[in-house]
Amino acid sequence: MTPLHIAAMHNRVDVVKLLLQRKDTDPNCEDAKGKTPLMTATIRNYVGIFRLLLEDSRTVHDRSDRHGMTPLMHASWKGYLEILHSINLNTSNPNLQERLRMTALHLAASESVAGAVGLLLSRDDIGPNSQDYKGNTPLHRANKSGDKRVIELLFDRGDVDPNRYNRHEMTPLYMASKRARFCRWSITSLSQR
Question: Would you say 143 and 171 are in contact if contact means Cβ atoms under 8 Å apart?
Fold first, then answer.
């Protein structure tokens, strides 16, 4: 673990700023778990540290850890909207997949983080029908969580396919009809699209 990792872990903006002024500081160095200081700041929601690292031209924004998770994925999954907004604007590929082939949009939909789903869907290059290792799309995942706002956001995008099959040959509509905890709205909304 480097001094930059330690400073990022302890939210020491002053130390991070000082370390980033040094030419021999590598902002992309990894700790034992494959996490960079930018990931550490993202996971801990340390906005000040995150911004300093993001502004450093040497920082790679799309670097993934040992689980294939990028800072964009971590921020989407946790619902850290301030960080997500910044990284969303600076990430070149929002469709990168972690080791289970989930994208940032899958993670946000799975956790019912409507704000994150909305930010991600604002990008023209987001893949709203990408499939994870089980063939589930973000809409499949949103149906599992049952969050009406997330389902509406996905449908409002206009290019989400409610009839896409997963590996178990289930569509989001079928999944909604089989789960007792789903409200009538979910099933009606999906069947009308």
Answer: no
How many other C-beta atoms are found inside a 10 Å radius of the C-beta of residue 164? 16
Place domain 64-193 in its CATH homologous superfamily.
Ankyrin repeat-containing domain (1.25.40.20)
Is the pTM of the predicted complex or chain greater than 0.85? yes
Each residue of 21-40: pLDDT tens digit? 999 999 999 999 899 999 99
Place of tokens 């930059």: 4
CA angle 77, 78, 83 (to 5 degrees): 100
**CB neighbours (10 Å) of residue 36?**
27
CB atoms closer than 10 angstroms to residue 140 = 26
Whether the CB-CB separation of 13 and 52 falls below 8 Å is answered with yes
